[in-house]
What does this fold into?
Amino acid sequence: VLNLLKHNLSDAGLILTLSYRHGSALSMLIAL
It folds into this structure.
């Protein structure tokens, strides 16, 4: 269970990292 939890947290971290990297682009799209 802990291993699965770690995997989920890792995926969440990856998603957050990608979201942060593309944050400015997404903000521009939302602004449009």
